[in-house]
Amino acid sequence: MKLRDRTAIVTGAAGSGMGRSIALTLAREGAKVVVNYRTSTDNANAIVGHIKSRGGNAIAVQADVFTSDGCKNLVNATLEQFDEVNICIINPGAGWHPDPIDKLNPDDAMEDVRREIAPIFHLMPLVLPEMYKQKWGRIVAIALTPPYDSPAYPYNVGKAARVHAFLQAYGQAWPNGVTFNVIAPGPVPAIETLTEAIEQSEHRTAWRERTSTSPQDIGEGVTFLCSEAAKFISGCVLPYRFYVK
Prior knowledge:
By secondary structure, the chain is an alpha/beta fold. Helices cover 46% and strands 14% of the residues.
């Protein structure tokens, strides 16, 4: 397994989207996984239960990663259980406010940008010092491919800020053995059930028969960037394309 003995925090991992598939895929490759969530307790526990049923190691941690206290609680719970953090996946971000710039609500727009950046600013001082000591770490964010052309202006601005926060950081982290990379898809359809998400993560029928980018594709990309195969990749913005019939 590619990530045996590594500990990974996956923020926003209890929904039906990319975070869940990332958590399942990292666990498949041997990582000890922290399934972070805000409100979906049952979903988080179900994911942890599945990982443990396959011989893996995982915990669910409730924490709001848009706040300083939430990030501290998340990292403290991880260290208490696993003693270290080797991988940190920054997943949840802006809301969706598609109003044009002449009609946008400034408070909503500012909140969108804050939610993209807050997990980075709150989590990095908590996880990087120990990664630097270990001379090994992987930080991956989910963002959007430039030129950030979704229909929502503040969403685009927030995603651009997240990407450039990573592009500014990777040079500082590189001498310490830590990589910063971005996975940058467009809209990725949810996987409706945990059963199907598991089937895709195990490369069974639902994976082979997918017709466009799925959360599992994102999980595979994240896992690659966290592996030794990507040791010399940092500052990457990895795009995903969509097949349309």
